[in-house]
Backbone:
């Protein structure tokens, strides 16, 4: 089993290393080779690391156990983060702890950056690429590892039948990976073309589409461009699409089947609730921004809906401009980030479907209190929610809440105030790192103590690994110790 994990990690390392060719080519063409040495050394180490993993993966098996899947789930993020950190280190821009935070923030699509301002364009491009790779890795984990390892904490009952729990095998991963990668690349190219047609430069279009499709959101253009209505709707559509349950599209076998799946998705209670929340909060934010005089009516509408969708999908695009916004909007967006997008989406957070099940469970328990003999079935979209899924969601809610408040206490040791600690903790756990910009400047984030940055890295991976993976690894380790001692 360990050999198969090493083999799959080697593939991930080789793929991430191959992506370094893009910023290397850019620095040679546009920056006169300014960062050439950093990328060259990074590629060399990446190739050696992949070859080493491949060399120790001979005689590999064909299946991975549940604990092995949890190990691979965590190690996949760490492997990508290791390769991603190398350009920051070899360029001399960041030291080791800062490079680790920057790379993990990118591959977990959190976007909590501590890069100093005025960096080379190729390094900014690499940061966007790491977010794109992180989004792709999340899709691969959602379709292969997470359902079997964590039971999705309630995600399985909304997943396509073909993607539900099964054995974690090499053949299954290979078959799913090809389909996921082709689809992901296709939508990335289409989005980049649309953004370019909307008025962005090719460089900005490439960066924006990568951080939007992955819900990373960590990019701010250095060039001025006007947010015309066409570009606004392209960005808005991209933000919404990345927050929907995209797992169901992966079982589509034809255009007709894909159309049917899209219609069913639009009819689902989860996406209806998501769009309703966007509409209501977007209108409230727009009217409040206009009333405070921060923007005129047209700009208030544009910014109100753009930022509402951005934080509802845990993307946090352009959050740097919100430092002096009223706290009313910041609290609404914090609520949106905690709630998150749809189950099976690229977005982080608790996820709307889990919220729906929790609300219906609470209402059912209230009915049982007044009518003890009543049998209440919890249904979503005309389908019964299994009791096991409800138990998993309740467990996840408890763990999520405990970890969030514990993390706030840990981060408060840095000396920052309660709101700042709340922003950092929620941002790291929900993959919405841009929440930190609500009450902090980029320099404040750069000056965070190193131990706080490393703890935030732990939270970022924890949020993407659905928490339970770490518990399974700990449990597996304790069982090994117990067997050795006895």
Residues:
């Amino acid at each position: 089993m360990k050999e198969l994990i090493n083999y799959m990690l080697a593939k991930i390392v080789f793929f991430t290393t191959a992506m370094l060719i893009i910023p290397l080519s850019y620095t040679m063409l546009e920056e006169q080779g300014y960062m050439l040495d950093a990328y060259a050394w990074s590629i060399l180490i990446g190739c050696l690391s992949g070859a080493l993993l491949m060399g120790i993966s001979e005689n590999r098996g064909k299946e991975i156990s549940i604990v092995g899947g949890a190990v691979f789930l965590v190690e996949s993020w760490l492997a990508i983060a290791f390769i991603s950190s190398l350009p920051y280190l070899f360029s001399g821009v960041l030291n080791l702890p800062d490079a680790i935070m920057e790379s993990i923030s990118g591959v977990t699509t959190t976007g909590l950056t501590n890069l100093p301002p005025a960096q080379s364009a190729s390094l900014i491009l690499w940061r966007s690429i790491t977010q794109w790779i992180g989004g792709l890795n999340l899709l691969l984990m959602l379709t292969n590892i997470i359902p079997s390892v964590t039971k999705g904490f309630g995600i399985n009952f909304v997943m396509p039948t073909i993607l539900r729990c099964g054995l974690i095998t090499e053949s299954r991963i290979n078959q799913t990976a090809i389909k996921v990668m082709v689809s992901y690349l296709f939508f990335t190219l289409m989005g980049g073309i649309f953004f370019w047609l909307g008025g962005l430069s090719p460089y900005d279009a490439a960066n924006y589409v990568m951080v939007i499709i992955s819900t990373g959101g960590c990019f701010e253009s250095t060039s001025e461009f006007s947010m015309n209505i066409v570009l606004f709707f392209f960005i808005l559509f991209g933000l919404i699409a990345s927050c929907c349950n995209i797992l169901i599209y992966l079982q589509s076998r034809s255009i007709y089947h894909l159309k049917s799946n899209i219609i069913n998705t639009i009819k689902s209670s989860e996406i209806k609730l998501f769009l309703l929340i966007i509409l209501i909060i977007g209108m409230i934010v727009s009217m409040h921004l206009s009333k405070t005089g921060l923007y005129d009516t047209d700009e208030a509408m544009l910014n109100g809906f753009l930022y509402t969708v951005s934080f509802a999908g845990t993307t946090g695009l352009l959050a740097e401009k919100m430092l002096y916004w009223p706290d009313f909007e910041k609290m609404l967006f914090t609520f949106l980030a905690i709630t998150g997008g749809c189950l099976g989406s690229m977005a982080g957070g608790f996820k709307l479907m889990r919220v729906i099940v929790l609300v219906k469970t609470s209402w059912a328990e209230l009915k049982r209190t007044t009518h003890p003999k009543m049998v209440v079935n919890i249904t979503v979209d005309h389908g019964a929610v299994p009791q096991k899924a409800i138990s998993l969601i309740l467990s996840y809610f408890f763990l999520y809440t405990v970890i969030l408040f514990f993390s706030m206490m840990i981060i408060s040791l840095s000396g920052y105030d309660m709101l700042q600690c709340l922003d950092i903790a929620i941002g790291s756990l929900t993959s919405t790192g841009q929440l930190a910009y609500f009450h902090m400047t980029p320099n404040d984030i750069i000056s965070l103590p190193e131990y706080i940055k490393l703890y935030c890295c732990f939270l970022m991976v924890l949020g993407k690994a659905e928490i339970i993976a770490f518990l399974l690894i700990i449990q597996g380790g304790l069982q090994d110790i117990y067997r050795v001692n006895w």
